[in-house]
Design brief:
Blueprint: E1 3-4, E2 38-44, H1 49-65, E3 70-76, H2 84-93, E4 100-102, H3 107-112, E5 116-117, E6 119-124, E7 129-133, H4 148-157, E8 172-173
Parallel strand pairs: 1-4, 2-3, 3-4
Antiparallel strand pairs: 2-6, 5-8, 6-7
Length: 176
């Protein structure tokens, strides 16, 4: 797991989250040279128990859908710049199978209007936003009944309409 610096990313064109397209600077992150048919961007935190409770489910979804060309990008907007090494160490230790970018200046959190961790954004192959909201209906994944992101990925992979386009993200607030 690597925590990339935002300094390596291109500048973004500001846009509103409800009409958000996948920013150009994120289109190649984690792609390993393969074209993707969809991209999941999920805001995570190394210190939030809500975020931590969803990591196993996110890893399982990554494993299940990577063969269908789904690319995953994590963004840590909760770790201040002076503690970036701690964030890097945490995400390295939990061995997420996708990159987690540091966002100490909240650039991406503000661009996406991400409010909590975890907060997921699902884009199609053209970069069009299909879904934004929680990974599940609870801040603690094992207690959840509705698994929004999983249901949306399942429907998308079957060529069906997504059951949810917007849900509430429950978890630790991202400080804006």
């Amino acid at each position: 797991m690597r925590l990339a610096s935002l300094a390596l990313l291109s500048l973004l064109v500001p846009t509103l989250a409800w009409s958000l397209d996948l920013p150009q600077s994120l289109r190649q992150v984690g792609s390993k040279g393969n074209s993707s048919s969809a991209t999941i961007v999920v805001f995570l935190s190394p210190t939030c128990p809500c975020s931590q409770s969803h990591l196993a489910a996110l890893t399982e979804l990554y494993d299940r859908y990577q063969g269908e060309g789904v690319r995953w990008i994590g963004i840590d907007s909760s770790t201040p710049a002076e503690k970036a090494a701690e964030g890097r160490d945490y995400f390295s230790s939990v061995r997420l199978p996708f990159p987690v970018l540091g966002d100490a200046d909240l650039h991406y959190a503000n661009l996406f209007s991400a409010v909590a961790t975890p907060h997921a954004f699902f884009f199609d192959s053209n970069g069009k936003l299909l879904y934004r909201g929680g990974v599940s209906d609870r801040s603690n994944y094992p207690k959840s009944k509705d698994h929004y992101l999983e249901a949306n990925l399942r429907a998308w992979s079957q060529g069906l309409a997504l059951p949810w386009t917007v849900t509430r993200a429950l978890g630790c607030p991202i400080p804006h």
